[in-house]
Each structure stands twice: as structure tokens, then as C-alpha cells.
Amino acid sequence: MNFNDQVVIDKITMSRDCIYIIDSFSLMFQVFHAIPPMTGTQGQPTNAVFGFTRDIFGILDRKPTHVVCAFDSPGAGKRNVIFEAYKANRAEMPEDLRPQIPLIKELLRGFRIPILECPEWEADDVIATVTAAASARGLEVVIVTTDKDARQLLSPTVRMFNCRRNTFFDGTALMEDWGVRPDQVVDFQALVGDSVDNVPGVPKIGPKTAKSLLETFGTLDHVLANADKAPGKKLQENLAAFADQARMSRELVRLRTDLPLEIDFDAARVKLPDRAALYDLFTRLNFRRFSAMMNDEVPGDPATESETAATHASISDPAEPVARPEESNAVPDSLRPRQQTLFE
Q: Which of 87, 124, 244, 246 has its CA 20 to 30 A from that of 328?
């Protein structure tokens, strides 16, 4: 059975086509910080590329019908106009990660996976726009990210997927974790704020208080309109004094679903990879196992020690709450089953 056969069979058995939308920088940072340093044939850092490659194989093993990768655009964005200090406390990108970004884009071109980005907007907004467009076409959507901003996009046909834990996160898991519905996520974050992105929120309001307020009043607008009815004098004072800050925070966390993107769903359909291009890339990066998978005529050299260590590296995400485990189709961590599944 070849790769195309599997896609056809999957389309027959699935209730609808399914697109995986990958939050590229989220995945990139996870694998970069988890996998020990690796170098290619020219001494270039490659650990993030290796981890990203491993995850792409794992995603393809799940047999989606479509895959795209969303990237942040460089430089300041539209949200910095709203709030100049937005993301001001973010650390600089590690020096060894920066040169791996073009290599990851080269990797994606080899897999024929579209790269989507929009000037002045973040990958989250690209993901939101693709999610809206895909949902309108009747596709199931899986967002590959652990970024909590994506929780506002959840619906009966939209889930999040954590590669590290092999788990999905849906509306039920959201209610168990935050106690709010997907349509309340933006208001919840506007009240609580986000220290990672430097979204201020309302002082002294944490997740429990935000949940309680939204349970009582429903929306941020109603919370602010009824500030004098909130429990406790200090909470009432903060809601009144920081109402504009809460509204600004809402604009910072709300994702755009209408970016001027050209989304080619035919191009996003999973295809056979460009073996020659991937073989050349994997050879340059000294990924012996991966290069052997792209060359049927050459029995690959044994994996390097770095490859072996990276293949079995445990990449955890302790900050992510326990989500709903996938009941089937678990992806093995070894490379041989992936080689047989995808290219046999």
C-alpha cells in the first residue's frame, strides 16, 4: 500500500475531511528546548529541525486530508499599535534557533505543506482565519498547539492537539479546566490577563474570580456594567477603575478570523513528498535515518548518536493541563513504523 492509497481509504472512513493547522513557532520552541544540541555536516544547529521533522511524520501518521503551517510575521504587529508594551517581556529568540527557521521552511516545502503568514499579524490570527475558512467548507479542524489563545476557536468540529502528550483538548476539557465556554474565553482572558504576552487584564482577578463573574454576568460587557454588584468592595473598585484596560485586553487576546489570506485548500491536501528535495536536506543535516527513508535504493547508514538521543527525547509540556487522551491511533516514537506507514 502506498501513501496515496492510505489517504483515499481514510477519506472513505472519516466522517469528513480533516485539516491539521500547525502553530509552527510553538512546535519549534518545544522541540528546540527539549532536544539536545545537534549539528549538521557544516556545523549548523539542527535539533529543532530534527524534532520538527519527527512531529511532521507523527502528524502525517494520523492521516489528515489537509495540513498547513502557520508562521508569525517578523517585526511589530497590529497589536503593538493597540498596546505598545504588548509582548514586551518576551525573551529574544535563541541564537541557535534562528538559523533553523529557513531549514524548517525548506523541510515543509519538501513535504509540500503550505506555509501561511500575513504581514503584521501573528500565527494565531492565521490559524483563526484558516479555522474559520475550513469550518465553513465543512472540514474538521485540529489545531496543533498548546497556546491557550487558541481555546477561543474550539467548537464541536474544532479541537486542539498536543503533540507532546498525544492528547486532544476540546470544549469539555476547557470547561473542566477554566469553567467557561469557548465563546467566553476572550472575556475570561481579558479579565485575568496574560503575563506571557504582557496582556494586563484587571488587577487582582485570577481564574477563579473570572469564572465566577462570567458565570454570574455572562460577558465582559455585562461584568463591567454591573461592577457595583460584584462581590467585595475592592473587586468593585478594580472593575470600575480598570474597565478600559479590560476592554483593551479583550482586543489584544481576540483572534482575527478575517485576514486577507489566500487559502488554497487543494494545495493543503496531503500529497506525496518531494523525496529528492528531502533527501538532499536530510543528507546536509546529517539525518541519516530520515535521508534513508527518502532513498529506496540506498540502505541508510546507522543513526548517529545525536539522532538516537533526539529520537527518544522526552519532550514534555508541564504547564499544559491534563486534556482528553486520544483513545486510538497512538503514534509510536520509533522511526521505523513511520517509515513503513508512510512510504511502504
A: 124
